[in-house]
Amino acid sequence: MPAGGVKRPPEGQGPILGRMNSAFETVYGDVQPLDWLCLAPHPDDAEIGAGGTLIRLAQAGKKVGILELSRGEKGTQGTPEVRVQECARAAQIMGLSWRGQLGLVDGEIMDTAKAAHRLAATLRAVRPTVLVVPHFKDRHPDHFGAYHLSKRAVHLAQLQKAYVGGEPHRVSRVLLYQGNADITPTLLVDVEGVQEVWAAAILAHESQFAGAAISETVTPEIVERRRARQGYWGTLGRVRYAEAFEAETALLVDPEAL
Ligand SMILES: [Zn+2]
C-alpha cells in the first residue's frame, strides 16, 4: 500500500471512503514521523498563525510539517497551481520536513465522516506527537470547521478498528493557534529570533500578499499586522515577540523551571 493509502473496509462495513486510494498529496519533503504537525485550512494559514514557533522547532532539529486541508482554490487571488509552488517555497524557507495537502473543498471544510477518515489516515502516516489546529473561535467557517474536523480525526486515528489504513496513532497533545479572533492563551512562544525567516515564509505566498489588499489577512501589510499582535503577546510574556496558543489539556511543568 502506498504511503497515505487507505485500507478498504471489509465487505458490508463501509465504504466510507468510496474509491479513494490516497488520503493526501505530498508537496514538499518526505512522509515521515513528525514531532509537530500544523493543520492549515488554506495555504499560508500555518505561517501566519504559528509560523514563528514552527520555524523555531525546525531550527532546533525537530521534524515539523504542515498539512493544508484545502488548496485554497476559492481564494480571490492565486490559483491552486501557483499556491502549491508557494507552499513548497515557504516549506523550504521554514525548514519543514514535510508539507502535504488533503484536498478538501475550499469553503466546505467541516466535520464529516469522510473528511475525518482522510485526515485520520494522514495522521497515521505522519504520526505527529503535537498537533496544532485552528482555534474554534476563528470567524472563518473553514477554520472552525477544521478545528471540529481535527477532533474527530484525532479520535479515529487512534482506534484499532477504524478503517483508515496504517497503524493506529495517538496524538500526545493538541494546541490551538490564533486566527482572526481574540484568544486566552495558555502558552506563549518567544519568536523574536526568527522574525526574518517568519516574514520571508509568509511573503513566499506572493500571490496573496503582493497585490492590493482585499481583506484583513490578504494584504501586503500582513507581516506588519501580525507582528504587532506578536508584540502584544510578547509584552505579556516579557519578550519582544511571542505567538500564543491554547492547550486542550493541562500542561505538566517542572516547577523548578518556573
Ligand atoms: Zn484560512
TrEMBL record:
<dbReference type="InterPro" id="IPR003737">
    <property type="entry name" value="GlcNAc_PI_deacetylase-related"/>
</dbReference>
<dbReference type="Pfam" id="PF02585">
    <property type="entry name" value="PIG-L"/>
</dbReference>
<protein>
    <recommendedName>
        <fullName>Bacillithiol biosynthesis deacetylase BshB1</fullName>
    </recommendedName>
</protein>
<dbReference type="InterPro" id="IPR023842">
    <property type="entry name" value="Bacillithiol_biosynth_BshB1"/>
</dbReference>
<dbReference type="InterPro" id="IPR024078">
    <property type="entry name" value="LmbE-like_dom_sf"/>
</dbReference>
